[in-house]
Amino acid sequence: MRNMSSSNKPKLISDENIPVGLTELLIKEGFDIKKIPIGATDKILSNLAKAESRVILTFDKHFIDKNLFPPKEHPGIIFIDLHPPRIEVIFSSLSKLFNEISPIEFSGKLFILSLFGFRIK
């Protein structure tokens, strides 16, 4: 990842399905990331993300349903569609995304991260 100052990084919130190892790598890179408590509902995650202006990191397919979680109402959603979910592959894909997209560009959008890059919905 290029040397990004913390002001050039989006604030993140990770769903309970995000591996701790990935969260730790992002923290080491200087990201402000909050881990949602185990057992918290998608609605709680969504509300916290909005209240704290944090981009959601998730493997949960509910977040790609625009009727349940409209992207325009969120500071950003990153749905990780990488299988198998190896931490180093996810971290590399996220690094590319964060290097190409500025924090302000996440707002109101759903990003689908795959082995082929990312799509914006």
Low-confidence stretches: none
Mean pLDDT: 93
Total number of strands: 6
The CATH architecture comes to: 3-Layer(aba) Sandwich
Separation, N- and C-terminal Cα atoms: 24 Å
Structural class call reads: alpha/beta
Strand order of the largest sheet: 2-1-3-4-5-6
Tally of separate helices:
3
CATH level-3 fold name:
Rossmann fold
Radius of gyration: 13 Å
Strand content: 15-25%
Shape: globular
The domain count comes to: 1
Question: Into which percent range does the helicity of residues fall?
Answer: 25-40%
List SSEs in N-to-C order: EHEHEEHEE
CATH class, anyone?
Alpha Beta
For the biggest sheet, the summary is: 6 strands, mixed
Summary keywords:
six-stranded mixed β-sheet; globular; 121 residues; alpha/beta
Question: How would you explain this protein's 3D organization?
Answer:
The chain is built from 3 helices and 6 strands. The protein is an alpha/beta fold. Strands 2-1-3-4-5-6 form a 6-stranded mixed β-sheet, sandwiched between helices. Strand 5 (110-114) and strand 6 (117-120) form a beta hairpin. The longest helix is centred in the C-terminal third of the chain and has 14 residues, at 87-100.
